[in-house]
Amino acid sequence: MDRLQVLDKGYVRLVGVMGSDLTIVNSARVSYDKQKAEMDSKDERLINFLIREGHTSPLRHASLQFEVYAPLMVARQWWKYVVGSDHTMDAWNESSRRYISEDEQFYIPAPTEWRSKPENSKQGSGETLKTAIGNKFTKALMQYVEEGEQLYNFALLNDIAPEQARLFLPAYGMYVRWYWTASLQSVLHFLDQRLGHDAQAEIQDYAIAVDAYTKAHFPAVHKAWQEHRK
């Protein structure tokens, strides 16, 4: 998987992986000074036991590194898993318009993608709105983005510093790019919450991509996690 497309212009790309299912097994067995070179059914049962019983510290000895391109509203939801993490081994580096002036990209929901407010909750979404209503707001958002880009470029042409010129860009829908490196334990914690039915739809789409990479590289852990996840 070179990279997985998400939303209209976003993606998730796996940059690197440290460890495997066997890494988890050997990390757990180091207490007994034991190490194995290949996985077998006993090791799968050990992984199942560790996850079932919540003994997840061995999962911190494996990690995944992703490149993510997503709207800022998704990035800021994701960011809390770094600043609030107790799982260690998390790192985040994000592109900055203080230093670069690459072409702006914005997330524009299609007319069929606008959602209503939920009836009995202060957060989340309700039903999908009628296309006629969605079409109105897709056009309005496109106009808003175009005006912001024009002001941003006008500021740059008048020698305004990029770090200030970016104030004219509509923020929440603007795509940003970052690297996220996290322990396997932290990745599974992220997936626990962002694959949930009550997670915002846009970040759910990104979680599905992260989940696909995780399953591909840690199949035994992923299988046990799926079986025992809350």
From TrEMBL:
One of its GO terms (biological process) is methylation. The keyword Nucleotide-binding does not apply. Keywords: Methyltransferase, Transferase. InterPro entries: Thymidylate_synthase_ThyX, Thymidylate_synthase_ThyX_sf. Coiled coil: none annotated. It is an enzyme of class 2 (transferase). Signal peptide: none annotated. GO terms for molecular function: thymidylate synthase (FAD) activity. Gene3D superfamilies: 3.30.1360.170. Its EC number is 2.1.1.148. NCBIfam families: thyX (TIGR02170). This is FAD-dependent thymidylate synthase. It comes from Sporosarcina contaminans.
